[in-house]
Structure formats: C-alpha cells, structure tokens
Design goal:
Layout lengths: L6 E5 L4 H11 L3 E6 L14 E5 L4 H11 L4 E4 L5 H4 L4 H7 L4 E6 L14 H8 L18 H26 L4 E5 H8 L1 H5 L22 E5 L5 E5 L3 H11 L10 H15 L4 H7 L7 E3 L10 H6 L2 E4 L2 E4 L31 H9 L3 E2 L8
Parallel strand pairs: 1-2, 1-4, 2-3, 4-5, 5-6
Antiparallel strand pairs: 3-12, 7-8, 8-9, 10-11
Length: 374
C-alpha cells in the first residue's frame, strides 16, 4: 500500500472531508476520525477508519488532539476559517509542535478572500468557479451535476492530491506545510481544459449548442425500448459511419450543419426506441462506433468488463467502486471492518490509566470498546 505508515487525523464534517480521508485510507494510510459522536450514520465513507469522539471546546479535549497531532503526518479539517484557531488547534499551534505535519484545510472559498468566512454548498462553489455556466441544455437553465464537481472532484480529490504532493515534498525537505484546498478553485482547475480550449472551433455557440455539450445529436444519450439508455459519442467520421450502418440510417444523414441536427436527433431517437438496451448493446458489441449502455448504478458491477477488472465490490448490499487508479505493485483496496488497524488501537493514545479514566468520565473522550471492529 503506497501510504502505509502514514497517520492521518480527520476532523469529520460534510462528505468532501470524509472522501478525502477515504482516498488516503484506501491507499494504506491509518486514518483516525474526530467526530462529535461515535456512531455517525450520515458519514457513509468511514469504513476502515478509527473513531474518537472528543469535546473540542474542552481544554482537555484540545490537549488530547494536540497530543495526537504530534504523532500524525496529516491533519484534515473542513471547518470555516478561524474555527480551529478558536479551539487552539490551528496550524500555528499544531505545526509548531510538529514541524512535519501537513495541515490540510478543505473549504468552499479558501482560507482568505472576501467570501472565505461565508457558508455555501457545492452548487454555490461550482457557480463561482465559472464551470456551472458551461453545464446545461440549450434554452434551459444551467444544471449542476449533483455535488460531484465542487464537493468531490474540486474538493476531496484536489485536497488529497495536495496532501500527496506535500508528503512528497516533505521527503526532500523534512518539513510539513498547510494545504489550502478551495472547492471553487479546485472545480475550476478540474475544468482547465474547458477554460483553455475556448479558441477551438468546437465552441462556436452558446452553452448547450456545441459539439460535446448537448448541441450535437451524435454526442448524446438516447432512450431504449425498455426505458433504459444508450450513450452515443460518435465524434470522428469513421465512428459516425459505423453508427449509421448499425442503426441503418439513410445514406444522406450527415454529422454537421444546422439542417442535419434536428433530423438526426429524431432519427436516432426513433431508432433506439425500437430495441431494448440489451439488444442495442449486442448490436454495437463488436464495433468501434463509440456506443455503449448507460449502466444502472445498482447493476454496474455485473457488466462483464467491470467484473473482469473487479472494478466494484458489493459491501453490505451497497455497490462500492474499487480505489482508482490501479497501481501495479501497490494497489489500493477497500478496507474491511475486520482489518487489523481497527482493533486494539487505544493504546496509541499513550495515556496513563487515570488520565484515560478522567477523560472518559468527564465526557471529553468517547471511543469504541477495546477490540471493537469499526
């Protein structure tokens, strides 16, 4: 596991922070969650992590966290700027005590700037990144891709990348640093190609009326006879010709030109509605026309390609994606509740019996029973 031996302290917030911690966990890091409660049903990304519930407003709780942070390589915190400083747990305090600590701050607007202290959600961050303005159908309102863009791609993944970069740099310098992960900036960075390709002739019109944003009938999704969908990405001429052949379209159907768009869309709509998804999948099985089924998330693990690559696992009736990318020597893996890292770990706090008893009885610290499988 590439991150084996790396110890992470994760302060639990909404999903972006836990997913950042999950990435590190899946690739071998030992992640300890600091949560308000021991059992948090809203955090569905805590598999393989260890949990402590600490009263962070209590000076004894703060002292306990500082003690933990001295032994950690990475700290992830998702709160608004200034919150950790008020708790005496900001980077000035913790990085002074542990100069090797990588202090990752994952927020919507970043650590400084006019909007830094303001509340927001994925749709707001995507909006301010400029990327949301590019997403949506012609003559319809802009549409956010659930909360994938800012929360997870721009937030969790970019924060994990920043942590790994800081770990690599620490290998040379011996010093930690602060990672300021802004979901606004992360979302924009993920969309770098969309920003920097604007002079290409694929963006000749407004949103939703271009080559790959819904404006071309040969790059879209179509409903099938059984209410499912097929994805069509026949951009190149050779792919388009194969699409025409398999759909048995008229010879004079063309890719480009306004006069062909409405006609082509009507022809493809009618054609795909004539057969089921399984039938169309078979028709396009042996040809590179860039036509594939839109797999239901509940069934995606049953697709033969995904089964062959073991791209998904089913954990307690939930389909879970395998950690990606796949490394040849040290691949990540989905942790199980019985992993050795989850048991007999309270000793690592290095507390004397009377100190541990005092923290527990005073409500400052709560933890699973010794030997409990998290």
């Amino acid at each position: 596991m590439p991150l084996k031996g790396i110890k992470v302290l994760e302060f639990v917030g909404l999903a972006p922070g836990p997913f950042c911690g999950k990435i590190l966990t899946d690739f071998g890091a030992t992640v300890t969650r600091i949560d308000k409660v021991i059992e948090n049903p809203l955090d569905v990304l805590q598999q393989g992590k260890r949990t402590l519930s600490v009263d962070l407003k209590n000076p004894k709780g703060q002292q306990l966290v500082r003690r933990l942070a001295k032994k950690c390589d990475v700290l992830i915190e998702p709160f608004r700027p200034g919150v950790m400083e008020k708790l005496n747990l900001g980077p000035t305090d913790l990085c002074t005590a542990n100069p090797r600590l990588i202090y990752a701050r994952l927020t919507g607007f970043g650590q400084h700037g006019r909007l830094a202290p303001r509340a927001g959600h994925d749709i707001n961050y995507a909006a301010l990144s400029g990327v949301l303005s590019m997403l949506g159908r012609r003559h319809e309102k802009v549409t956010a891709p659930i909360n994938l863009l800012a929360d997870f791609a721009g937030g969790s993944v970019m924060c994990a990348l920043g942590i790994c970069l800081a770990l690599l740099e620490r290998h040379n310098s011996g010093k930690g640093q602060v990672v300021d992960a802004s979901m606004v900036e992360g979302a924009a960075y993920v969309a770098s190609w969309l920003f920097m390709s604007r002079k290409l002739d694929i963006w000749w019109r407004d949103r939703g009326d271009n080559l790959i944003d819904g404006g071309s009938y040969f790059y879209d999704t179509y409903e099938t006879k059984d209410g499912r969908y097929m994805s069509v990405g026949a951009l190149e001429p050779q792919f388009f010709e194969l699409l025409k052949q398999r759909l048995e379209l008229p010879e004079d159907v063309s890719q480009f030109g306004d006069e062909h768009q409405d006609r082509g869309r009507k022809l493809l709509t009618k054609a795909f509605l004539s057969k089921t998804q399984a039938e169309w999948s078979q028709i396009f099985e042996d040809v590179d026309a860039c036509v594939y089924p839109v797999l239901d998330f509940r069934e995606v693990h049953r697709h033969d390609h995904n089964k062959e690559r073991k791209s998904f696992e089913v954990i307690e009736d939930i389909v879970a994606p395998r950690p990606a990318p796949l490394l040849s020597r040290t691949p990540g893996k989905l942790p199980k509740a019985t992993d050795d890292a989850q048991v007999e770990w309270i000793d690592e706090l290095d507390l004397k019996p009377h100190e541990l008893k005092d923290l527990v009885e005073s409500g400052v610290l709560t933890f699973p029973e010794r030997g409990a499988k998290l």
